[in-house]
Amino acid sequence: MTGLPNGVLVAWLGDDFTGSAATLEVLAFSGLPAVLFLNVPTAEQLARFPDSRGIGIATTARGYGPEWMDQHLPETFQFLAETGAPVVHYKTCSTLDSAPHVGSIGKAADIGVAYVKGRWIPCLVAAPPLRRYQAFGHLFAGAPEGVFRLDRHPVMARHPVTPMTESDVGAHLSHQTEKPFGLITLEDLAADPAAALARETGNGAEIVTLDTMTMEDAARCGALIWENATEQTLAIGSQGVEYALVAHWRAAGQIETVDKTAGAGPVDRIVAVSGSVSPVTAAQIAWAGENGFAVIALDAAAVVRGDTAVEEAAVTQALAALSSGKDPLVCSARGPDDPAVGRMRAAVAESGVAEDEANARIGAALGRILERLLRETGIRRAIISGGDTSGYASRQLDIFAFTALSPTIPGAALLRAHSDDPAYDGLQLALKGGQMGSPDYFGWIKRGGGSAENQ
Questions:
Q1: Alpha-helical runs (H) found in 5-65
Q2: Same fold for the domain at 10-251 and the one at 271-454?
Q3: 267-308 pLDDT, tens digit each
């Protein structure tokens, strides 16, 4: 590696656990050692990863409001700034899940600039490997049926918490911050990106969104971010930020192209929990039920009402499934049309529990179930499905960090857990966002991951 500064290159704060892990894998599978912490690490924990070129901290900010961010994000931004990384990245979902009242990306940017004082904030949400694209300011996202503008996406347009009614990235985020927005278009990237940046910042833009359709576009964006950084630059967006930086570093000959596509090998038994209601996850659960997994329903409505007996029932059923030779998959719903979703929402309305608290309760319950199963069986590979669920559930396990182990499709790798508890240290855990993965994803992880070409 030549021409890059020593030490940490990128430090990131993820607004959910699956996205945080997705950023980790972009760097690690590009040959750049990286580590993802679950909280601001102690000096001793940080010292275990002396060669890291990327350091991240996973949060559950996507599920909370501005007041929570004011309380929890400053310490994290301060730590990341103190790593000395030239780029400090607030990692958002690649489908821009956010609103002024929940998961506000603009609010996070407002907090971040107090600690990372760059002259501009690049905003790169597009990530071509994920089928996420931005053209003339508008975000498009892939789905099994094709690629859709965000406000017409079959999932995001009817998202239960943050439905997308606006596809223009700057317009969407302008409701979350008073910072003025600019745009560097595909035409600008093809002509003179640096001149376009000077134009936008000269016109008063503080946050500049970046079009990207191809990895060639991404490399140009990476060059723009890297070569126009001051002492530190605050970036916001998806793991597209890291894809862009890596593409630029490769094009500039600063890092080599490496092969990090091998799997971790198959296991006899695996445990999975899911709190996702995505149609993509629904198809994966259906596949699992037909291919050696025992699908076990967790009564989410009962969890919202505070009934812990349903957790014990799920554990009992899961242990019985393992005894019969099946892999347990405990889920709160089999998809958006599962009647369990309606029952859960009715329980939320009847109990008066806030929706974010209800989601936290369900995720934590799934985490406690997973914790019981791992401790009682000694199983060393598991899956948590659902972006918010991954955060709430992971926090029920005695883990302080993750490193990347084996890829699958982008954004859903198999990770290695780090813990002071021997029961969890070295645990292989996959964190999968609701919209991520192929229909056979649960089986893919049981086989050990590895790139799609190796399956």
A1: 17-28, 43-47
A2: no
A3: 999 999 999 988 889 999 999 999 999 999 999 999 999 999
**Euclidean distance between CA atoms 342 and 177, whole angstroms:** 34
Was domain 271-454 assigned CATH 3.10.20.600? Answer: no
Taking the C-alpha atoms of residue 79 and residue 82, their distance in angstroms, rounded to an integer, is 5
Q: Which amino acid is at 191?
A: A
pLDDT digits (tens, 9 = 90+) for 327-382: 999 999 998 889 999 999 999 999 988 888 888 999 999 999 999 999 999 999 99
Q: Could you give phi then psi for residue 218, rounded to 5 degrees?
A: -60, -45
Q: What's the CA gap between 77 and 111, in Å, rounded? A: 8
d(CA 310, CA 318): 12
- Grade residue 434 by pLDDT with cuts at 50, 70 and 90: confident
Could you tell me the two tokens for 28?
């690690």
Q: Is 84 helix (H, G, I), strand (E, B) or coil?
A: coil
CB 92 within 8 A of CB 19: yes
What does the angle CA 441 – CA 445 – CA 449 come to, to the nearest 5 degrees? Answer: 105
**CATH architecture entry for 10-251:** 3-Layer(aba) Sandwich (3.40)
User: Residue 446 and residue 381: Cα distance in Å, rounded?
Assistant: 8
- Measured in residues, the chain has a length of 455
Enter the tokens of residue 454. 């190796």
Residue 124 is inside which H or E element, if any? Answer: strand 121-124
Asked if residue 437 lies in contact with residue 280, where contact means CB atoms within 8 angstroms, the answer is: yes
Taking the domains of the chain in order of start, what are their residue ranges?
A: 10-251, 271-454
Q: Is 126 helix (H, G, I), strand (E, B) or coil?
A: coil
Residue in 373, 356, 441 with CA at minimum distance from that of residue 160: 356
Distance CA 452, CA 286 (A): 20
Question: DSSP label at 128?
Answer: G
Q: Does residue 327 contact residue 272 with C-beta atoms inside 8 Å?
A: yes
137: left (phi over 0), alpha (psi -120 to 50) or beta: left
Distance CA 200, CA 309 (A): 58
Q: What is the rounded CA–CA span in Å between residue 420 and residue 145?
A: 44
Cα four-point dihedral sign 153, 155, 158, 159? negative
Residue type, 9: L
Contact 386, 415 (CB under 8 A): no
Q: Which residues pair with 273 in a beta bridge?
A: 330, 384
Q: Provide the pLDDT for residue 453.
A: 58
Q: Please give the residue that has the higher pLDDT: either 1 or 447.
A: 447
Residue in the structure block whose two tokens are 């980790």: 24
